Amino acid sequence: MITSAKPCILLLLAVLLVSGSVTPGKNILVEAGCQSDIGNLISKCESYVQKTGPKIAPSEGCCGVVQGVDMPCVCGYVTKSIESIISMEKVVYVARTCGKVVPSGTHCGSYVVPRT
């Protein structure tokens, strides 16, 4: 169960890790095998995936965290509530900008990743 909206934002990058208990600042392991450090995702990447505003190239720190994320795994856990908070298009943009492979056709919630 997700305990706050802020960790939801980065489930995808991860953000970022849905079927377990989420505690900001702790390492989280989702039952499906997706791994990520929610605290780092929140502190390093949150501003790059918000619904509002333009796409902004992520920082080196954000990219460092994104490199440890299994994007296709995490994308499989994106819900409508997560999509209401973050831009899936920006999540994919951030991941790809950081050099992470997110295959076209991958479903992140209702968003289908386009070709590069």
TrEMBL record:
This is Uncharacterized protein. It comes from Melastoma candidum.
